[in-house]
Amino acid sequence: MKKRRILIIHDQNVFRSIIMRTLTAEVPDLELHTADSSLEAIELLKKESFDMVISANEMEQMNGTDVHLHMRDSGRHNTTGFLLLTSKLDKQNKKIFKEKRIDNVLKLPFKAGELARQVDLLSVPREWRRHLRIDVPGTKVRIHLGHRIIQADIVNLSMGGMLCNLKVEPEGIPEFSRFYTSNILFPPLYGSVSVNVDGYVLRQAGLQWFEPPKLEIIQCAWRLSEITGRAREIMQDILDKASDEPDMIDE
């Protein structure tokens, strides 16, 4: 699989590490590169090609807005996706970003899902869209574990995976150790259709606890096998309908 080349620009090592760890965990097909200053980044942008640039705004040598201006004035990266990270998102700065035609801004501190979503939306070659995780409210899944069927709420979904929350039943926490067949159940808004998929658990974690400590809800990330035929058509159509356009800046 070809990987998307992402350049991360931040003059503080701890923030570069946080961004890299987040993207490594959230998005499966990235090749991450870093620059510890805006001047180093400009030199890299002259020599190499990237599918997207993520830049801090507040840096010592040159602000991220100036890096963006350099990219738009260059031939190599004048249309490359650009995400600005800033801790200052008041009305004055929003006006500045708009004037400089910076359409995608993420306020620090960010949530992991917000950053992953922006990366998927700004580096959008069609062959990579299968990894874009979409919120489809009201969607559920029935997971077949032998003679036991577990129902869970889907948090987000893509052609390649899903994140779901399931309530721990009296039988205890299920043991996921192999491929399972599941039925994804879409709500009336999307025609109340169902799609059969196969997949396996990548990771699971406790999400909600009773008092005294007793696990109530666990969250599971699933990798799905390739979906083909009519099931693929249905899934892709629903995901396209549920997908939102990227927000510029939250008001």
Topology diagram in text:
Layout: E1 4-9, H1 13-26, E2 30-35, H2 38-47, E3 52-56, H3 64-73, E4 81-86, H4 91-99, E5 105-107, H5 112-122, E6 140-145, E7 148-157, E8 161-167, E9 180-185, E10 194-210, E11 214-224, H6 229-242
Parallel strand pairs: 1-2, 1-3, 3-4, 4-5
Antiparallel strand pairs: 6-7, 6-9, 7-8, 8-11, 9-10, 10-11
Helix pairs in contact: 1-5, 2-3
Task: Give a short overview.
By secondary structure, this protein is α/β, with parallel strands linked by helices.
Tell me about this structure.
This protein is of the alpha/beta class. It has 2 domains: 4-131, Rossmann fold, CATH 3.40.50; 140-242, Thrombin, subunit H (Beta Barrel). The protein contains 6 helices and 11 strands. A 6-stranded antiparallel beta barrel has the order 6-7-8-11-10-9. Helix 1 packs across helix 5 and helix 2 runs parallel beside helix 3 (64-73). The longest helix is centred in the N-terminal third of the chain and has 14 residues, at 13-26. The two termini are 38 Å apart. The model is unreliable at 245-251 (pLDDT under 50).
